[in-house]
Design brief:
Layout (H helix, E strand, L loop, with lengths): L11 E3 L19 H12 L7 E5 H6 L1 H14 L2 E7 L5 H7 L4 E4 L1 H5 L5 H17 L2 E4 L5 H9 L4 E3 L12 H4 L5 E5 L9 E5 L3
Parallel strand pairs: 1-6, 2-3, 3-4, 4-5, 5-6
Antiparallel strand pairs: 7-8
Helix pairs in contact: 1-3
Length: 205
Amino acid sequence: MGLAAGLPRCGSVATAYQGRGQSLGSAIPKWQASAGAVTSALASADLPASRLEVEITETVLLVETEAVLATLHELRALGVHIAMDDFGTGYSSLSYLRSFPFDRIKIDRSFIEHVSEEASSLAIIRAVASLGDSLGMAITAEGVETTEQLHRVCAEGCSEIQGFLFSPPRPASDIPALLNPACVQTVAARDSRSPQSNELVVTAA
């Protein structure tokens, strides 16, 4: 089934991969050693730090904020990208954004799920997208499962989309097929808002 028809112009589509990383939220005391572990892992894999993105949840910051922020700054200094995952489900989210310049905010799927029925969810998505744009942070809408949700979150300013509408989590062995030009086409798109923007069109092989 093709998904290209009628897709709005969003910055990109993100697909989650099984086994991509490990949640550090359940191992807070290990944060102090995380930067060193990441450095070793990057060297072992011969992977540039700029190709790695670490996702953390607000729960992590609630426990040992100072230690976690110190480690995040170390990772950021290495060139690693940092994303705030499940944004909006914890506490004091705005203070975290002030404390650390995240590269990406990922809006929790609970807001996306009700975007068609609840005006409040749509308003929150709009506000977070505007905030992210002002702070220079990419905004990812998580859990997009329908074309209606896709159109709504893109209209509100989300620059990246993730969800089953495009693909469920996939093992690393599936990556080559997902990157096949027959599956993903990047088409230059021009519009009045962003003349140099790109449109990512995803179709099933």
